[in-house]
Write a structure and sequence with these properties.
single chain; 282 residues; mainly alpha; MetI-like fold
Length: 282
């Protein structure tokens, strides 16, 4: 009886803590959504009130934001860059991790530690050099952005794939080789399907990062081309000297986060499965 009472007390405390955390996390989203339906002058005057009467602007902020920013085009480019970059990251980093894990040499060990080291190097240390190289190799376009994201996303992805592959029994691969599989067939037909939980986790983490990234597209593509991504066009609503259309800004933020929220809610269970699988098998 005493044990049950302690359990109920513990659960109640945990519920209260998690509820507070949920409110803290969700309130900024509600704040943005709420103010997207208010006139821009009322947002600054009373940002925490609900839109009622004269403060309610309907969908005018959304229409105004779409006209000013060209968000629909930016959404298309963001989808293209995100999807292609994630596919490239999964394909190349999984194959790299497989080679590094199965071929034990000093070179592969050095490569592995270089990938791990790249995870702790701040982007600010390499952004000017990267921008110069992007200009030299004509990477200032959507395809070039995918190549750059492949490079910056390789460290964590190789680390996650390598940790999972170490636990995959090599007997399975040897059996497929005896049956006549080539190394490529062995990888794509035997090894890669086993990597599905980790591949999905890598895809989700990189998709959320690439979709929301502002600094890299801003430095490489800039604001003067037609290839602008969502964070870049949203930033365009902030004018010179700090002038900004808060209503349109809030509306465009709502439209920009809807796809990634849907994507995350759909795939969140795979993140847990992938992390747990890697932890247990690693």
């Amino acid at each position: 009886m005493i044990q049950n009472k302690k359990t109920r007390t513990t659960n109640s405390i945990l519920f209260v803590i998690l509820f507070v955390v949920a409110v803290v996390v969700l309130y900024p989203l509600f704040f943005i959504l709420n103010n997207s339906f208010k006139g821009k002058f009322f947002i600054s005057k009373d940002p925490f009130s609900l839109p009622t009467g004269e403060t309610f602007s309907g969908l005018s902020n959304y229409v105004n934001g779409l006209v000013k920013t060209g968000l629909l085009s930016a959404i298309g480019w963001s989808f293209f860059i995100t999807i292609v970059s994630v596919l490239l990251i999964i394909l190349f980093t999984s194959m790299t991790a497989y080679y590094i894990t199965r071929v034990k040499t000093k070179v592969t060990q050095a490569l592995y530690y270089m990938f791990v080291f790249s995870m702790i190097v701040p982007f600010q240390m390499v952004m000017f050099t990267m921008s110069s190289l992007a200009d030299t190799f004509h990477l200032k376009n959507p395809i070039g952005m995918c190549v750059l994201y492949l490079g910056f996303g390789a460290g964590l992805s190789v680390f996650m794939f390598a940790g999972f592959i170490k636990s995959v029994p090599i007997d399975i691969e040897e059996a497929s080789m005896i049956d006549g599989c080539t190394p490529l067939q062995n990888y794509f037909k035997v090894v890669f399907p086993i990597l599905k939980p980790t591949a999905i986790t890598v895809a989700i983490l990189n998709a959320m990062w690439i979709w929301n990234d502002f600094l890299l597209p801003y430095l490489v593509i800039g604001i003067s081309t037609k290839y602008k991504t969502i964070p870049v066009v949203v930033q365009m609503l902030v004018g010179s000297n700090g002038n900004k259309d808060m209503g349109a800004l809030m509306a465009m933020l709502v439209l920009s986060i809807i796809p990634i929220i849907i994507f995350y809610l759909t795939c969140q269970k795979y993140i847990i499965e992938g992390v747990v699988a890697g932890a247990v098998k690693g």
